[in-house]
Amino acid sequence: MHKFIFWLLLVILSIGMCIFTGLQAMDRYETKSTVMGLERDFYFWRTPVASFTVCPMRRLSQDLFDKYCQKKKITGTHKEDLQLFLETLANSTYFNFANITVRPSIDSTLDRLRLKPAQYMSLIYNLTTDFTQMEDENERIRLNDGFKNFVVRQVLTEFGICYLGNSYLHDEYTARYLLFGKYPKINKEHVKMLLGSYFDSVLLILSVPKTFESIGVFIHSSHDALKIEQKFFYTNEAVYYKAETREIIAEDGFEKATTIAQRNCRFPHESNLEHFEIYTKSFCMQECRLNMVYKKCKCIPHFYPNRIRNPKPVCSYAALKSCVAKNAENFRRLHSLKARKTVHCHCMDSCFNSIVVVKSVEVLANLNVFQTGFTVGVEVTTWPLELLKRQVIFTFTDLLVAVGGAAGLFLGFSVLGAIEFFYYFTLRLLWYLRGYRY
């Protein structure tokens, strides 16, 4: 009897240790199977130059606005008040919602136009010139390095309609697609990205037409969009940045060998967002922010894409100037932990990304390189000596080895033993019951 109890306790202990060790191996496989490795073979890298996003401070086209007012028969004071309202609305964001200019005639004009808040952004878009499509090269916004021209696209941001150049982001990230589901015309002869190596020194120049008058400049990762919380630079003169970029990449087969939960990052096509078809951490934070606004104010600002199955109500100018403006600081910084938990805000990193460090900014007053406007330049003279790479260090095969090893250590389990166990209690038992003895 004592021997039976001893062996029973030993078996229970062995099974418990086997289960404990197996669960540890499973937890490692599910949550700790990937690492960020460091590589130093910098002679062979092709590193992307940082992306530009520039936002004009004057948004509406005077010609397009005049034609719109002529068509709608809006004149005099009503026209002036409407232009000021739409211009400030087009420039509004979490920093200045309270500054939207509303004069007494606006409500009657909006009623006459039957302009609902959901139509704010489409009207602003239709009254804005797309400077990537201008026929006259001197009036077009363009990006080049002195040898090749690069793609520039009109995009929709939390600062309104802006222009993005030198970006890996998919073509779905354009203002026209986000608002209407239509792809814009992109010159296929233009190159999408500028890459450089350890032996290169590059200068990427964005030529801005004089119509812009002044711009806000953002320098950021070529794998992501601008973030509203990052620093930006207002200028109406030529401005040049010296920047360095360290890229974060993934090893070959990384996506297929892992799940999203294992690697704790997402590729662009793995979007779980409602308002954006592609995933980046910036888009995730934008969706988190708009959901916080919706939770608090029961509407969302006009500059978010809302082409979804059940569109959210868009804030009227009154809601923007009151509820959203009052809580803008918390929305902008995503400060409200209670609201973040309520809207399930958890933003993973992008599996491909880059870290941009601006070394210096220099304003070159009265520099007019193309005699048609001013320029924004990014110069790269030094390249990173280290590269971060996402790698798998604990595969499914490693999991099988760990679980099998624990079972073998504590229970003497093996695949042959399992087959023999199956055989004794199926085929051999069946033949025994049928009278066969051997």
Automatic annotation (TrEMBL):
Coiled coil: none annotated. Keywords: Ion channel, Ion transport, Membrane, Sodium, Sodium channel, Sodium transport, Transmembrane, Transmembrane helix, Transport. InterPro entries: ENaC. One of its GO terms (cellular component) is plasma membrane. GO terms for molecular function: ligand-gated sodium channel activity. Its main location: membrane. It comes from the Eukaryota. This is (Mediterranean fruit fly) hypothetical protein. It comes from Ceratitis capitata. The lineage of its organism: Eukaryota, Metazoa, Ecdysozoa, Arthropoda, Hexapoda.
